[in-house]
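Pipeline run #58 for the internal structure catalog. This entry was flagged by the ingest filter as a single-chain record with no existing model, so it goes straight to prediction. Upstream metadata was stripped on purpose; only the residue string is passed forward. Reviewer on rotation: M.T. Logging verbosity set to normal.
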Amino acid sequence: MKRVITFLLVIALGAPAFSHELTIKARNNSMKAGELFPVTVQSAHKFIVPEEVEILSRVKAGIIEDGKFIASELTANDPELCIDFTVTPKDLSQSVILVAMKDGESWCVTNEGGKSGARRELEAQGLKVISANKYDKYAKAIYNTSPDDKNFSSVLGHPLELIPITNPANAKVGEYFDVRILLNGQPYTGPVWATYDGFVTEYENTYAYYTEAENGVAHVKITAPGWWGIRAAQSGLPGVEGDYDALNLRAFLLFEVK
């Protein structure tokens, strides 16, 4: 049975459920065709509050053009705890989709605490590996939407992907925002969290809204204007023998409600 909670929600599911989340945040909203648009990739437990710089070799970020991903050059920004990149949108007649992806390394719980590295590598070092997990993460941000936009619902083919059913240009406070969620191309059924920029900055893993997707569709009630993020997660997918026991997927969709 679907459960919806619209008050302050702190879900204490532990570290495996709430690893650092990958999100995208632009430096400004003044996007112009043919001009550089500065963007950041952030990783944190608080929504759009950067906490650590991801390993550059494991992250790709850029823009979707003509249905294809165009990667940008990434720069670590240690003082601001983020990764910087720029895109140059060619066409603003439709919405612009920005993407960040992380190919997660194996992370093991051992008799000496948490360690990065494959199970076989750590066991070869004499450690006792209790569990080994891999976390792959995907973030998608939609800019420049308009009521007649057709681009906002583009399917990119991520293993876990959130695709708007509601055009973000038509999202309104007090109404539902519908989103389709695919897990390896199939309808996802499971938990969905949502929040907006500034809802809570004091506490980690705190979201404004919780619901459950059924047959690949979730309904999120918009309660404030501003930048929103909708999150889905899938844990316990099959691993790779000797490397990691389970694959865990995380995905964020970001859009503005005016």
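catalog note: The helical segments are 119-124.
catalog note: The CA atoms of residues 225 and 257 lie 5 Å apart.
status: ready for reviewer M.T.
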